[in-house]
Protein backbone atom coordinates (compact mmCIF):
# COMPACT_ATOMS: atom_id res chain seq x y z
CA UNK A 1 0.00 0.00 0.00
CA UNK A 2 2.83 2.36 0.88
CA UNK A 3 4.54 1.68 -2.44
CA UNK A 4 1.42 2.49 -4.47
CA UNK A 5 1.30 5.94 -2.84
CA UNK A 6 5.01 6.72 -3.11
CA UNK A 7 5.71 5.85 -6.74
CA UNK A 8 2.89 7.94 -8.32
CA UNK A 9 3.93 10.86 -6.14
CA UNK A 10 7.40 10.83 -7.78
CA UNK A 11 6.19 10.48 -11.35
CA UNK A 12 5.01 14.10 -11.85
CA UNK A 13 8.35 15.37 -10.60
CA UNK A 14 10.27 13.14 -12.99
CA UNK A 15 8.08 14.22 -15.90
CA UNK A 16 8.56 17.88 -15.04
CA UNK A 17 12.32 17.45 -14.84
CA UNK A 18 12.41 15.70 -18.20
CA UNK A 19 10.23 18.40 -19.80
CA UNK A 20 12.43 21.12 -18.43
CA UNK A 21 15.70 19.54 -19.56
CA UNK A 22 14.34 19.03 -23.09
CA UNK A 23 12.93 22.56 -23.29
CA UNK A 24 16.19 24.11 -22.12
CA UNK A 25 18.28 22.02 -24.51
CA UNK A 26 19.74 19.98 -21.68
CA UNK A 27 20.54 22.99 -19.48
CA UNK A 28 18.56 22.21 -16.36
CA UNK A 29 20.26 24.89 -14.25
CA UNK A 30 21.51 28.38 -14.94
CA UNK A 31 25.13 28.28 -13.71
CA UNK A 32 26.10 30.59 -10.90
CA UNK A 33 27.80 33.79 -11.97
CA UNK A 34 30.89 34.88 -10.08
CA UNK A 35 31.68 38.60 -10.03
CA UNK A 36 35.07 39.81 -8.73
CA UNK A 37 33.36 42.93 -7.38
CA UNK A 38 31.53 40.82 -4.81
CA UNK A 39 34.79 39.76 -3.18
CA UNK A 40 36.62 43.10 -3.44
CA UNK A 41 33.83 45.59 -2.85
CA UNK A 42 30.33 44.16 -2.45
CA UNK A 43 27.57 46.68 -3.21
CA UNK A 44 25.24 47.96 -0.54
CA UNK A 45 21.82 46.33 -0.25
CA UNK A 46 18.63 47.50 1.43
CA UNK A 47 16.51 44.50 2.43
CA UNK A 48 12.83 45.41 2.72
CA UNK A 49 10.49 43.24 4.80
CA UNK A 50 6.97 44.58 4.14
CA UNK A 51 4.33 43.35 6.56
CA UNK A 52 0.74 44.09 7.53
CA UNK A 53 -0.88 42.26 10.40
CA UNK A 54 1.21 39.07 10.39
CA UNK A 55 2.00 37.52 13.76
CA UNK A 56 4.99 39.39 15.23
CA UNK A 57 6.88 36.17 15.98
CA UNK A 58 6.61 35.16 12.31
CA UNK A 59 7.97 38.53 11.14
CA UNK A 60 10.76 38.45 13.71
CA UNK A 61 11.91 35.07 12.39
CA UNK A 62 12.23 36.58 8.91
CA UNK A 63 14.05 39.61 10.32
CA UNK A 64 16.54 37.41 12.14
CA UNK A 65 17.08 35.42 8.96
CA UNK A 66 17.82 38.60 6.99
CA UNK A 67 20.20 39.85 9.68
CA UNK A 68 22.02 36.51 9.56
CA UNK A 69 22.81 36.97 5.87
CA UNK A 70 26.39 36.18 4.93
CA UNK A 71 27.08 39.76 3.91
CA UNK A 72 29.16 42.64 5.33
CA UNK A 73 27.13 44.38 8.02
CA UNK A 74 28.21 47.82 6.87
CA UNK A 75 26.80 47.06 3.39
CA UNK A 76 23.49 45.60 4.58
CA UNK A 77 20.43 47.37 5.98
CA UNK A 78 17.31 45.48 6.98
CA UNK A 79 14.21 47.69 6.91
CA UNK A 80 10.90 46.50 8.38
CA UNK A 81 8.01 48.25 6.61
CA UNK A 82 5.04 47.74 8.89
CA UNK A 83 1.72 48.70 7.34
CA UNK A 84 -0.10 47.18 10.32
CA UNK A 85 1.44 49.68 12.76
CA UNK A 86 1.94 46.94 15.34
CA UNK A 87 3.28 48.28 18.63
CA UNK A 88 4.35 44.78 19.64
CA UNK A 89 6.39 44.37 16.47
CA UNK A 90 7.86 47.87 16.81
CA UNK A 91 8.97 47.07 20.36
CA UNK A 92 10.51 43.74 19.35
CA UNK A 93 12.44 45.39 16.50
CA UNK A 94 13.59 48.12 18.88
CA UNK A 95 14.97 45.47 21.26
CA UNK A 96 16.91 43.75 18.48
CA UNK A 97 18.22 47.08 17.23
CA UNK A 98 20.10 47.62 20.51
CA UNK A 99 22.65 45.09 19.21
CA UNK A 100 22.01 45.34 15.45
CA UNK A 101 22.35 48.93 14.30
CA UNK A 102 21.67 48.00 10.66
CA UNK A 103 18.04 47.12 11.49
CA UNK A 104 15.36 49.78 11.00
CA UNK A 105 11.60 50.01 11.54
CA UNK A 106 9.23 52.25 9.60
CA UNK A 107 5.45 52.52 9.59
CA UNK A 108 3.99 55.00 7.12
CA UNK A 109 0.94 57.16 7.64
CA UNK A 110 -1.60 55.61 5.28
CA UNK A 111 -3.73 57.74 3.02
CA UNK A 112 -6.96 56.82 1.24
CA UNK A 113 -5.05 55.60 -1.83
CA UNK A 114 -2.32 53.72 0.02
CA UNK A 115 -1.88 51.07 -2.72
CA UNK A 116 -1.31 48.19 -0.30
CA UNK A 117 2.04 46.33 -0.52
CA UNK A 118 3.31 48.26 -3.55
CA UNK A 119 2.56 51.56 -1.83
CA UNK A 120 4.28 50.36 1.32
CA UNK A 121 7.46 49.44 -0.56
CA UNK A 122 7.44 52.66 -2.58
CA UNK A 123 7.18 54.59 0.65
CA UNK A 124 10.16 52.58 1.89
CA UNK A 125 12.17 53.56 -1.20
CA UNK A 126 11.70 57.21 -0.27
CA UNK A 127 12.09 56.73 3.49
CA UNK A 128 15.54 55.12 3.27
CA UNK A 129 16.77 58.38 1.74
CA UNK A 130 16.38 59.89 5.23
CA UNK A 131 18.75 57.36 6.78
CA UNK A 132 22.48 58.01 7.21
CA UNK A 133 24.38 57.24 4.03
CA UNK A 134 23.13 57.07 0.46
CA UNK A 135 20.36 54.67 -0.62
CA UNK A 136 21.73 51.29 -1.62
CA UNK A 137 22.01 50.61 -5.39
CA UNK A 138 20.20 47.31 -4.84
CA UNK A 139 16.97 46.47 -3.04
CA UNK A 140 16.01 42.99 -1.88
CA UNK A 141 12.49 42.05 -0.86
CA UNK A 142 11.49 39.39 1.65
CA UNK A 143 7.90 38.51 2.48
CA UNK A 144 7.09 38.68 6.18
CA UNK A 145 7.02 34.88 6.51
CA UNK A 146 10.05 34.09 4.34
CA UNK A 147 13.34 32.96 5.88
CA UNK A 148 16.37 33.36 3.59
CA UNK A 149 19.38 31.10 3.42
CA UNK A 150 22.47 32.91 4.75
CA UNK A 151 24.12 32.91 1.30
CA UNK A 152 21.09 34.19 -0.66
CA UNK A 153 22.59 37.60 -1.48
CA UNK A 154 25.92 36.04 -2.39
CA UNK A 155 24.08 33.97 -4.99
CA UNK A 156 21.67 36.56 -6.38
CA UNK A 157 23.75 39.74 -6.61
CA UNK A 158 26.44 38.39 -8.98
CA UNK A 159 23.65 37.50 -11.42
CA UNK A 160 22.60 41.16 -11.61
CA UNK A 161 26.14 42.55 -11.53
CA UNK A 162 27.13 40.40 -14.51
CA UNK A 163 25.07 42.49 -16.95
CA UNK A 164 24.29 46.24 -16.74
CA UNK A 165 20.86 45.57 -18.29
CA UNK A 166 19.96 42.91 -15.74
CA UNK A 167 17.36 44.36 -13.39
CA UNK A 168 16.18 41.33 -11.42
CA UNK A 169 17.51 38.12 -9.96
CA UNK A 170 14.65 35.91 -8.80
CA UNK A 171 14.76 32.61 -6.88
CA UNK A 172 11.82 30.24 -6.38
CA UNK A 173 9.70 30.31 -3.27
CA UNK A 174 10.11 27.13 -1.23
CA UNK A 175 7.99 26.13 1.74
CA UNK A 176 8.81 24.26 4.93
CA UNK A 177 5.25 23.22 5.85
CA UNK A 178 3.87 21.63 2.66
CA UNK A 179 1.58 18.70 3.65
CA UNK A 180 2.58 15.12 2.83
CA UNK A 181 1.98 14.30 -0.85
CA UNK A 182 1.09 17.98 -1.44
CA UNK A 183 -2.56 17.30 -2.40
CA UNK A 184 -3.26 20.94 -3.36
CA UNK A 185 0.02 21.42 -5.25
CA UNK A 186 0.96 24.18 -2.82
CA UNK A 187 4.67 23.73 -3.52
CA UNK A 188 3.98 25.28 -6.96
CA UNK A 189 6.40 22.85 -8.60
CA UNK A 190 5.19 23.51 -12.16
CA UNK A 191 5.65 27.26 -11.78
CA UNK A 192 9.01 27.21 -10.03
CA UNK A 193 10.62 24.14 -11.61
CA UNK A 194 9.32 24.32 -15.20
CA UNK A 195 7.68 27.63 -16.21
CA UNK A 196 10.04 30.06 -14.48
CA UNK A 197 13.27 28.35 -15.66
CA UNK A 198 11.97 28.55 -19.24
CA UNK A 199 11.27 32.26 -18.88
CA UNK A 200 14.62 32.77 -17.22
CA UNK A 201 16.45 31.05 -20.06
CA UNK A 202 14.93 33.69 -22.37
CA UNK A 203 16.10 36.55 -20.12
CA UNK A 204 12.53 37.24 -19.05
CA UNK A 205 12.33 35.81 -15.56
CA UNK A 206 9.27 37.08 -13.73
CA UNK A 207 9.56 38.43 -10.23
CA UNK A 208 8.15 35.93 -7.75
CA UNK A 209 7.35 38.54 -5.10
CA UNK A 210 9.84 37.51 -2.41
CA UNK A 211 13.51 36.73 -2.08
CA UNK A 212 14.49 38.71 -5.17
CA UNK A 213 17.06 41.45 -5.75
CA UNK A 214 16.29 44.43 -7.99
CA UNK A 215 18.54 47.18 -9.28
CA UNK A 216 17.37 50.50 -7.82
CA UNK A 217 18.13 52.34 -11.08
CA UNK A 218 15.81 50.03 -13.02
CA UNK A 219 13.11 50.24 -10.35
CA UNK A 220 13.16 54.03 -10.36
CA UNK A 221 13.09 54.10 -14.16
CA UNK A 222 9.67 52.41 -14.15
CA UNK A 223 8.34 54.58 -11.33
CA UNK A 224 8.85 52.13 -8.48
CA UNK A 225 6.64 49.17 -7.68
CA UNK A 226 3.50 49.37 -9.86
CA UNK A 227 0.38 50.45 -8.00
CA UNK A 228 -2.01 49.68 -10.88
CA UNK A 229 -2.19 46.03 -9.82
CA UNK A 230 -2.22 44.10 -6.54
CA UNK A 231 0.12 41.59 -8.23
CA UNK A 232 2.87 44.21 -8.20
CA UNK A 233 5.60 41.59 -8.66
CA UNK A 234 4.26 40.28 -11.95
CA UNK A 235 3.42 43.79 -13.12
CA UNK A 236 6.90 45.05 -12.23
CA UNK A 237 8.45 42.44 -14.50
CA UNK A 238 6.28 43.54 -17.43
CA UNK A 239 7.18 47.20 -16.89
CA UNK A 240 10.90 46.40 -16.71
CA UNK A 241 10.87 44.25 -19.84
CA UNK A 242 9.04 46.98 -21.74
CA UNK A 243 11.91 49.35 -20.88
CA UNK A 244 14.52 46.89 -22.15
CA UNK A 245 15.61 45.49 -18.79
CA UNK A 246 16.08 41.76 -18.23
CA UNK A 247 15.49 39.31 -15.41
CA UNK A 248 17.33 36.12 -14.48
CA UNK A 249 15.82 33.13 -12.70
CA UNK A 250 18.09 31.42 -10.18
CA UNK A 251 16.79 27.90 -9.70
CA UNK A 252 18.08 27.35 -6.20
CA UNK A 253 16.31 27.04 -2.85
CA UNK A 254 17.26 30.32 -1.17
CA UNK A 255 14.18 31.08 0.95
CA UNK A 256 11.53 29.16 2.84
CA UNK A 257 8.06 30.28 3.83
CA UNK A 258 4.63 29.02 4.80
CA UNK A 259 1.69 27.80 2.74
CA UNK A 260 -1.93 28.66 3.64
CA UNK A 261 -3.04 26.66 6.66
CA UNK A 262 -6.50 25.67 5.43
CA UNK A 263 -8.27 24.70 2.23
CA UNK A 264 -10.38 27.87 2.37
CA UNK A 265 -7.27 30.05 2.73
CA UNK A 266 -5.64 28.23 -0.19
CA UNK A 267 -8.68 28.86 -2.43
CA UNK A 268 -8.72 32.55 -1.47
CA UNK A 269 -5.00 32.86 -2.26
CA UNK A 270 -5.22 31.13 -5.64
CA UNK A 271 -8.36 33.03 -6.65
CA UNK A 272 -6.74 36.35 -5.80
CA UNK A 273 -3.54 35.54 -7.69
CA UNK A 274 -5.14 34.32 -10.90
CA UNK A 275 -7.97 36.85 -11.06
CA UNK A 276 -5.57 39.75 -10.54
CA UNK A 277 -3.15 38.39 -13.16
CA UNK A 278 -6.03 38.18 -15.65
CA UNK A 279 -7.00 41.78 -14.88
CA UNK A 280 -3.40 42.83 -15.42
CA UNK A 281 -3.24 41.00 -18.77
CA UNK A 282 -6.37 42.82 -19.91
CA UNK A 283 -4.85 46.17 -18.92
CA UNK A 284 -1.64 45.40 -20.82
CA UNK A 285 -3.65 44.41 -23.88
CA UNK A 286 -5.82 47.48 -23.69
Keywords:
3-stranded mixed sheet, disordered N terminus, 7-stranded mixed sheet, 286 residues, alpha/beta, globular, 10 helices
Can you walk me through this structure?
This protein is of the alpha/beta class and 286 residues long. It is built from 10 helices and 10 strands. It has helices at 2-23, 36-40, 56-67, 87-97, 116-127, 152-161, 189-201, 216-221, 232-242, 263-285; strands spanning 45-51, 76-82, 103-106, 138-141, 147-148, 166-170, 174-175, 212-215, 246-249, 255-257. The protein has a 7-stranded mixed beta sheet with strand order 3-2-1-4-8-6-9, sandwiched between helices. It has a 3-stranded mixed beta sheet with strand order 5-10-7. α3 links the parallel β1 (45-51) and β2 (76-82). The termini are far apart. The model is unreliable at 1-11 and 20-29 (pLDDT under 50).
